[in-house]
Design goal:
Layout (H helix, E strand, L loop, with lengths): L3 H20 L6 H10 L7 H8 L3 H13 L3 E5 L7 E5 L1 H22 L4 H17 L2
Antiparallel strand pairs: 1-2
């Protein structure tokens, strides 16, 4: 019998593979989509704030932002109240890419959960949320 750790790891790897393949036409990965989603709030965030919320170390976050900026999806600009800080905001292209990529990602998630009945897929997601929130 497989351990829960192994099962979750392999499920995550499969979903990540499916997501990355589907996002190739948009020039982003699933992890970059996660960063774009986090940065999409109405108020631009600092790299450090976004990294903390995503559980990503600062060095990795800088690499993500550099890559997304090179693709024209985000821009760094001075904070309105503290000129020593930079905030990162999505560009118009970034917002359009995010909107389209989220739609594709949601389709991939439905395809991934297809072997389960609709209710089982929803119950799996709810159970995972309960486990994450319960262990925090």
């Amino acid at each position: 019998m497989s351990s829960l750790v192994r099962l979750l790891k392999h499920a995550q790897l499969r979903l990540s593979e499916m997501t990355n393949t589907a996002l190739e036409p948009y020039g982003i990965s699933g992890r970059e989509l996660g960063v774009l989603t986090e940065l999409a709030d109405d108020e631009p965030a600092s790299q450090q704030d976004a990294a903390r919320r995503l559980g990503i170390d600062r060095t990795s976050m800088v690499a993500f932002i550099d890559a997304l900026e090179a693709k024209g999806l985000v821009e760094r600009r001075p904070h309105a109240l503290d000129r020593r800080r930079n905030v990162v905001a999505l560009t118009a292209t970034g917002r359009r890419t995010l909107r389209e990529a989220v739609s594709v990602s949601e389709r991939v998630e439905r395809d991934f959960l297809k072997p389960l009945t609709g209710l089982d897929g929803q119950q799996l997601k709810e159970a995972l949320v309960s486990l994450i929130e319960g262990s925090a």
